[in-house]
């Protein structure tokens, strides 16, 4: 298993290089931050200042050379210069990643637990009223645009705050700006209050698609011979469901959840924008609008590493869940 | 003259066709159509979806307000004159939602068509030739899959000025790889079938086998995928437009309309709920249509007979 893991990591390196190189070329050719610098300031900067700026962000070098310098720099922990002065990209990246992880972790856990419960229930009671309702709700959330739902939740939060006269449900940012931190309890409730609405938003979207997967996988397993055999041997229904059926049904779900979580860790862009969280998603949007090449590359690198890592975890979990699979 | 008619003419009593056991010949297409028509949710969805399409494309020609024209009324609640109300600057929301639906649908359909066309041909060629051609083509597809859709779309659209076909081209340029994977796996199993061998024995060229035999037989998964791509396409485009990286004013899309109305949920709720409801209706009906098509193309997944 260790040899397999090492091999997988080695194989992913060329893919990572090719992918970052393509994105680098696209970003470098998609706009001119130097021209933005020269035209967007009042009073207009001098020619020398513009030239110094171009040198500072390496815009005066050819693209291939820039890419090479960037990738060797990253290996030394240097993520390159930002178009914003006094912004340490490496520090920015990890602060934001922590913010996004706190946002995503709870949401994904809730979504996963609910998806398994409702998916299994839906499959066991196939074509019952409950199954139809769960399926319909699933379809509805799959069709609902996240931004629309998030704005609605935000409004509901504001309304609830007004009705109860409290400020518990935070709708802006990850914590209150002028919080008097007298006790850790106050700080904790403040964080929780800000987490609730974005967590619900993220959880419901993932929940909808994962329930569909669980249901489909469970239905396939329930119709198989070994489940019938287990029942025929006289094993209790509950035990057959959990130990025989669910364990196998979880296998396709691991791939889907791993990929979904990985991509959402790259930034829940819409959710972060609406609730004004300073996470990975906001970083991507700012970097793209300001054509901040190195900032965007830092974002890309971290999210690509997360995708690769989660893919690997999913494949390793396969071996744990399915005794037929062995990696050596 | 058929046998029955001949017998009837001869004065011999024959049972009528509906009284005897008769086997009616049906083509594959007829079978699929029959299965689809019997899928109630899918049929209702298809009707609703087609009505929305007709409304969005024909409606603007019949409606007396244009989406880009000010009306003297601002911030009006829905009325006979303005069925969806007006916004703060006096635009007629009915005309704007019609235009937004049209733009969003155009983008979503172009995404589905473009990525399906490229992906299907790409996957079919890779699956048909296998070996080194397959390896190279599928590695390229894998590479495209690793590119972050949102990042590329954000970067390119901030430059392209938000014309609708550019948004569609960018999104389709990153989603065709999914289609190519699906089609390749289908073609890999199809190419071993006897009818391909027969075609080859008759001297058919590679191109003829790919386009006349393999692709038509892989049509099931291709069409199902294309349907789902319309739904994901409309959600991606509206999200991009919501973040102001998609369609730009004065043109409008359903995502942009929701974005413009997000501060007015309390004061002018009609501006927020109606475009949102249209996105949901379109994505929901398409998902149901896709579900019905999947059942129709794949009889193994059919529901129990009722």
TrEMBL record, chain A:
The keyword RNA-binding does not apply. It is a multi-pass membrane protein. It holds the Pfam family BPD_transp_1. Keywords: Cell membrane, Membrane, Transmembrane, Transmembrane helix, Transport. GO terms for cellular component: plasma membrane. One of its GO terms (biological process) is transmembrane transport. InterPro entries: MetI-like, MetI-like_sf. The chain crosses the membrane at residues 9-28, 97-121, 133-153, 192-210, 249-277, 297-321. Residues 97-318 form the ABC transmembrane type-1 domain. PROSITE patterns: ABC_TM1. Coiled coil: none annotated. It is found in: Cell membrane. Belongs to the binding-protein-dependent transport system permease family. This is Peptide ABC transporter permease. It comes from Streptomyces albiflavescens. The lineage of its organism: Bacteria, Bacillati, Actinomycetota, Actinomycetes, Kitasatosporales.
From TrEMBL, chain B:
It comes from the Bacteria. The keyword Protein transport applies. One of its GO terms (cellular component) is plasma membrane. Residues 105-290 form the ABC transmembrane type-1 domain. It is a multi-pass membrane protein. The keyword Cell inner membrane applies. It is found in: Cell inner membrane; Cell membrane. The chain crosses the membrane at residues 41-63, 107-128, 140-158, 164-183, 222-247, 270-290. Its main location: membrane. One of its GO terms (biological process) is peptide transport. It comes from Streptomyces albiflavescens. Gene3D superfamilies: MetI-like. The lineage of its organism: Bacteria, Bacillati, Actinomycetota, Actinomycetes, Kitasatosporales. Belongs to the binding-protein-dependent transport system permease family. OppBC subfamily. Keywords: Cell inner membrane, Cell membrane, Membrane, Peptide transport, Protein transport, Transmembrane, Transmembrane helix, Transport. This is Oligopeptide transport system permease protein OppC.
């Amino acid at each position: 298993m260790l040899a397999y893991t090492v091999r997988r990591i080695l194989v992913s390196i060329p893919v990572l290089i090719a992918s970052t190189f393509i994105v680098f070329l696209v970003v470098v050719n998609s706009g001119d931050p130097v021209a933005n610098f020269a035209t967007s300031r009042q009073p207009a900067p001098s020619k020398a200042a513009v030239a110094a700026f171009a040198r500072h962000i390496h815009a005066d070098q050819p693209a291939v050379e820039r890419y090479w310098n960037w990738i060797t720099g990253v290996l030394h922990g240097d993520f390159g210069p930002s178009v914003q002065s006094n912004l340490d990209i490496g520090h920015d990246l990890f602060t934001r990643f922590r913010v996004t992880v706190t946002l995503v972790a709870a949401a994904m856990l809730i979504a996963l637990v609910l998806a398994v419960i409702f998916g299994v229930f839906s499959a066991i009671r196939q074509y019952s009223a409950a199954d139809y309702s769960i399926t319909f709700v699933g379809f509805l959330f799959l069709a609902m645009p996240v931004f629309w739902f998030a704005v609605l939740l935000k409004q509901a939060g504001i309304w609830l705050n007004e009705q109860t006269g409290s400020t518990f449900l935070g709708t802006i940012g990850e914590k209150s700006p002028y919080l008097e931190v007298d006790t850790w309890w106050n700080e904790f409730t403040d964080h929780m209050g800000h987490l609730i609405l974005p967590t619900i938003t993220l959880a419901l979207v993932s929940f909808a698609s994962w329930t569909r997967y669980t249901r489909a996988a469970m239905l396939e397993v329930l119709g198989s011979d070994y489940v019938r055999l287990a029942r025929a041997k006289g094993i209790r229904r509950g035990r057959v469901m959990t130990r025989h059926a669910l364990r196998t049904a979880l296998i396709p779900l691991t791939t889907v959840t791993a990929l979904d979580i990985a991509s959402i860790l790259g930034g829940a862009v819409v959710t972060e924008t609406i609730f004004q969280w300073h996470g990975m998603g906001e970083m991507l949007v700012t970097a793209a609008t300001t054509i901040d090449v190195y900032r965007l590359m830092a974002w890309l690198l971290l999210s690509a590493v997360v995708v690769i890592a989660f893919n690997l975890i999913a494949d390793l979990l396969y071996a744990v869940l399915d005794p037929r699979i062995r990696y050596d | 003259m058929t046998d029955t008619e001949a017998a009837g003419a001869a004065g011999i009593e024959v049972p009528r066709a509906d009284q005897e056991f008769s086997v009616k010949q049906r083509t594959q297409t007829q079978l699929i159509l029959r299965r689809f028509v019997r899928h109630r949710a899918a049929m209702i969805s298809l009707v609703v979806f087609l009505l929305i399409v007709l409304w969005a494309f024909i409606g603007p020609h019949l409606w007396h307000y244009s989406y880009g024209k000010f009306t003297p009324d601002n911030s009006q609640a829905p009325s006979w004159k303005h069925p969806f109300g007006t916004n703060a600057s006096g635009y007629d929301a009915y005309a704007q939602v019609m235009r937004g639906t049209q733009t969003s649908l155009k983008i979503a359909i172009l995404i589905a068509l473009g990525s399906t066309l490229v992906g299907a041909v790409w996957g079919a060629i890779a699956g048909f030739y296998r070996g080194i051609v397959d390896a190279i083509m599928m590695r390229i597809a894998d590479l495209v899959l690793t590119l972050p859709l949102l990042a590329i779309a954000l970067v390119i659209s901030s430059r392209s000025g938000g014309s609708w076909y550019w948004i569609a081209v960018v999104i389709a340029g990153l989603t065709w790889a999914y289609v190519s994977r699906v089609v390749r796996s289908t073609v890999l199993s199809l190419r071993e079938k006897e009818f391909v061998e027969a075609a080859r024995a008759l001297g058919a060229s590679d191109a003829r086998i790919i386009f006349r035999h393999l692709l038509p037989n892989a049509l099931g998964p291709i069409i199902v995928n294309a349907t789902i791509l319309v739904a994901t396409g409309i959600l991606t485009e509206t999200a991009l437009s919501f973040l102001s990286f998609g369609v730009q004013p004065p043109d409008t899309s359903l995502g942009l309309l929701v974005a413009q109305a997000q501060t007015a949920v309390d004061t002018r709720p009609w501006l927020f709920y109606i475009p949102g409801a249209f996105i949901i209706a379109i994505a929901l009906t398409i998902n149901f249509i896709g579900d019905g098509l999947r059942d129709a193309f794949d009889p193994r997944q059919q529901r129990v007979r009722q």
